[in-house]
């Protein structure tokens, strides 16, 4: 999916850095797909033996191309993992109110916490699909979201949860720590791994709606 940022942050250096990193991520993923296409065209995978039953190099495949593709896939996977860590840090600089402290009036910080320093909920879980990443993480219907990765209440403008959707897309197959308020007085920390292929729609498998109670 395309990467967009809230209008109020579109011109910041932090946002530009995120866009640059996301472009690099897309390029890495495209090259990885291309290298896997080389393997598929030779009918092999990352762990397929390249020697025949007698111990000689197989003559039915392009050994140089396959070996090169395998090495390149490993390199790209390492690059991708390191880049995702950088994207997470960059997103935190965009969305974390502490990182935006110089541009946010002092009074605005009260939106994130109460007088005792507790985070304020900004979203509510309206449903969780069985067998989904959300269900695996332990998310329950009626949970109130206090934080989602670096995102807190003031990371959002109006009732749009677009920053959350963007963060989930950027963190596909990577851990995301969230904190929820359960049963009005119990705070719970959960670990998500947004992913496809779990048998349903979306990367999380839950319905989250804005909360302003």
Could you state the order of secondary-structure elements as H and E? Answer: HHEHEHEEE
Helix content: 25-40%
Number of helices: 4
Shape: elongated
The major sheet is characterized as:
5 strands, antiparallel
Mean pLDDT: 80
Let me know the number of strands: 5
Low-confidence stretches: 7-11, 100-116
Strand order of the largest sheet: 4-3-2-1-5
What would a concise description of this structure say?
By secondary structure, this protein is α+β, with helices and mostly antiparallel strands. 36% of the residues lie in helices and 14% in strands. A 5-stranded antiparallel β-sheet has the order 4-3-2-1-5.
What does the model show?
This protein is an alpha+beta fold. Helix content is 36%, strand content 14%. It has four helices and five strands; from the N terminus they run ααβαβαβββ. The chain has helices at residues 13-41, 63-95, 133-137, 162-170, and strands spanning 123-128, 144-148, 176-182, 186-192, 206-210. Strands 4-3-2-1-5 form a five-stranded antiparallel beta sheet. A hairpin with a 3-residue loop joins β3 and β4 (186-192). The two termini are 31 Å apart. Mean pLDDT is 80; it is low at 7-11 and 100-116.
Which descriptors apply to this entry?
single chain, 213 residues, alpha+beta, five-stranded antiparallel beta sheet, 5 strands
């Amino acid at each position: 999916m395309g990467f967009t940022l809230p209008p109020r942050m579109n011109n910041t250096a932090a946002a530009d850095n995120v866009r640059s990193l996301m472009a690099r991520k897309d390029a890495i993923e495209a090259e990885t797909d291309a290298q896997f296409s080389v393997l598929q065209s030779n009918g092999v995978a990352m762990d397929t033996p390249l020697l025949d039953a007698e111990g000689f190099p197989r003559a039915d495949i392009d050994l140089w191309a396959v070996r090169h593709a395998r090495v390149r896939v490993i390199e790209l996977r390492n690059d991708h993992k390191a880049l995702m860590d950088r994207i997470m840090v960059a997103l935190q600089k965009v969305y974390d109110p502490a990182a935006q402290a110089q541009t946010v009036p002092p009074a605005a910080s009260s939106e994130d916490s109460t007088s005792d320093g507790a985070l304020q909920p900004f979203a509510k879980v309206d449903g969780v699909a069985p067998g989904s990443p959300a269900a695996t993480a332990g998310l329950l219907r009626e949970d109130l979201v206090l934080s989602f990765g670096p995102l807190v209440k003031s990371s959002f403008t109006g009732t749009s949860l677009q920053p959350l959707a963007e963060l989930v897309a950027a963190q596909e197959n990577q851990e995301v720590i969230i904190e929820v308020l359960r049963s009005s007085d119990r705070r719970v920390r959960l670990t998500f791994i947004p992913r496809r292929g779990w048998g349903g729609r979306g990367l999380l498998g839950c319905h989250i709606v804005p909360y302003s109670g």
